[in-house]
Structures are given as structure tokens and as C-alpha cells.
Design goal:
single chain; alpha+beta; rod-shaped; 8 helices; three-stranded mixed β-sheet
């Protein structure tokens, strides 16, 4: 009895296992069948819409049918509908997909048709080339119609549909560049993205701050030193003029017998000599002060500046360490 009961239990378990196996296999088949039925209905609707000239609606139905049941015939219908409604790049991409699948499944007829349609469509497909005028910042990205563009695609002529296309360069949440280009059938457009690059001031803030503080002092030092050069040049000129005046009068006044006019020229020469000496002294001091201010404004090295100015009759000596 025990043996018979055990056999009945085994039979029941076996039957239950067969039923479970049948159910697990039946449901995927039913799902596939449902998807195929839906795909067939969508395909039929797409053909009807294309016959009425509604190629946008036909493309939408072909796409839904292909998603439900991907077949080469549906893919061909999708590419043809997109071509007729002006989505040339999308159509070209789907013809390329049809070509690849035809070769994989060794469908020579579909392969020839895909090649012929691609060759006829290719000259009409707009191409858009996006270039970056500077290297992208770390974390930067280029978006074409809100879709990230791989860095390898920069500089390549990308197929796009006719119409407006938005090119954006972002660094995180910050927008660096934005441009809209309108593509026409067969057009070849190029967008060069330009943006302000980060300056060394932002990268090395400590060094930049020192440079910014010292820059006005260096400018002041350069101006003061330049004024000193001009004053020295003017003093040298007046000194030279006074010397020529003395020489000329001495030749015209033998034995110190000078006329009133010659005496006036002598006084003028003395005045020029005095002004010339004063200008050279002031110019020398200004040059020395300008050099000190310029050197101190740099602040690169912590060394004390020492300057010595020596002024004598007809000469100026400037020595120092900076």
C-alpha cells in the first residue's frame, strides 16, 4: 500500500511538472504572438497612411511596428516613409541599418535595394560639422539638439535632417556657447564653437593677486623713470646750447670787448646752463625713484633694494642693487 501511494505521489508530481513546463513555455509564445499581431496591424495602418500621402503618420506606425516585431520589410517601409516626409538623415541611417541586416541574414535582394536607395539619397542629406575653437574644459560637453556629441565626432560631417539644429557647449551647468543653424537638403554647414577660455588668473589665484597689486606700482615707477629720462635729455640739451653760446661769444669778443648784445647772450647762456644742470639733477632723481618703485612693485623676491645717486658737474652716476 505504501508503495502504491508513493507511486501515485510521483505521478502527481510529474503531472504537475509537465503542466508548469507547458505554462512557462506557453506564455512567451503568446506574448510573441501578441506582439506580432500588433506589429502586423500597425504595418497595415502605415501602408494605408502612406497611400493617402500621410508620410509622417506612416513613419510613426512603421516605427511602432518595427519595435514590436523587427523585420526587414518594416525597416524598409520606415526608411521610405521618412524619406518622403523629409527626414533625410533618419531615412539614410535606417537604409544603412537595412543594409547591415541584409548582409547579416544574406538577403541579397534587400541588400541591393538598400545600396541603390542610399546612393540616390546621399547627395540630398544635409551634413553638419561641429568644431571646437579651443580644447573642451574638463567635464565639458557638446550637445547637438540636446543629445551629447562624442568628442570623436567633432570635426566630422554628420548627417542631419533638414531644419533648425541647436549646438550647445556646456561646462557643468554653465553654458559656454550656443548657436542655431538651419540645414537645407544637400547643405554642408559648419559651426565653430568659440568661448572665453579660463585665464591664468583664475587658475593661480595667489600669484594673480600679487601681480594685480604690484601692477599699478610698476606702472607708476615706469612713468616716473620715463619722466626722469625726458628731464635728463632736456637738461643735456640746454647744457649743450649754453656751451655753444659761450664758444660763439668768446670768438666774437676778443680781449673781452663785448657789445651789449653779446653780454645778453652770455647771460642767456648762463641761464641755460643753470636750467640744464637743474633738469639733469631732477631727471636723475626721477629715474632712480622710478626704478626703485618699479622694482619694489614686482615683489617677486624678498630682497631689499638699495640705490645710490651721484651727481656732479656735468655727470650723473646711478648705482644700486634690486
Amino acid at each position: 500500500m505504501a508503495s502504491a501511494g508513493g507511486n501515485r505521489s510521483v505521478v502527481r508530481l510529474a503531472q504537475a511538472g509537465i503542466v508548469a513546463l507547458w505554462m512557462s513555455a506557453a506564455f512567451p509564445v503568446a506574448a510573441d504572438a501578441t506582439s506580432k499581431a500588433a506589429a502586423d496591424e500597425l504595418f497595415r495602418q502605415a501602408v494605408e497612411l502612406a497611400g493617402r500621402g500621410d508620410y509622417d503618420g506612416a513613419a510613426s506606425r512603421f516605427k511602432a511596428s518595427y519595435d514590436a516585431d523587427p523585420t526587414l520589410g518594416t525597416l524598409l517601409g520606415l526608411a521610405m516613409a521618412e524619406q518622403r516626409c523629409g527626414k533625410l538623415a533618419s531615412s539614410y541611417v535606417h537604409y544603412q541599418e537595412l543594409l547591415d541586416l541584409s548582409r547579416r541574414f544574406q538577403d541579397a535582394e534587400r541588400e541591393r535595394e538598400a545600396i541603390a536607395r542610399m546612393e540616390a539619397l546621399e547627395p540630398q542629406v544635409p551634413r553638419l560639422t561641429v568644431r571646437a575653437a579651443a580644447p573642451l574644459p574638463r567635464g565639458g560637453r557638446v550637445l547637438l539638439d540636446a543629445s551629447p556629441l562624442p568628442a570623436e565626432a567633432l570635426g566630422s560631417a554628420l548627417p542631419v535632417d533638414p531644419g533648425d539644429h541647436l549646438v550647445v557647449v556646456r561646462d557643468g551647468e554653465r553654458e559656454l556657447f550656443s548657436a542655431t543653424v538651419r540645414a537645407a537638403p544637400g547643405s554642408r554647414d559648419t559651426v565653430v564653437a568659440r568661448w572665453a577660455t579660463a585665464s591664468p588668473v583664475a587658475v593661480q589665484s595667489g600669484v594673480a593677486e600679487r601681480g594685480q597689486r604690484s601692477s599699478p606700482m610698476r606702472t607708476t615707477g615706469a612713468v616716473v623713470a620715463g619722466s626722469g629720462v625726458l628731464l635728463s635729455a632736456a637738461g643735456a640739451y640746454l647744457w649743450f646750447r649754453s656751451d655753444r653760446t659761450y664758444s660763439d661769444v668768446s670768438q666774437r669778443c676778443p680781449g673781452e670787448a663785448c657789445t651789449a648784445g653779446d653780454l645778453d647772450r652770455i647771460d642767456g647762456g648762463r641761464s641755460q646752463e643753470g636750467w640744464g644742470r637743474l633738469c639733469m639733477i631732477a631727471g636723475g632723481v626721477a629715474m632712480a625713484a622710478g626704478v626703485v618703485v618699479w622694482a619694489w612693485g614686482g615683489g617677486k623676491e624678498k630682497r631689499e633694494s638699495s640705490v645710490r645717486v651721484g651727481v656732479g658737474p656735468g655727470n650723473l652716476r646711478l648705482t644700486g642693487a634690486f
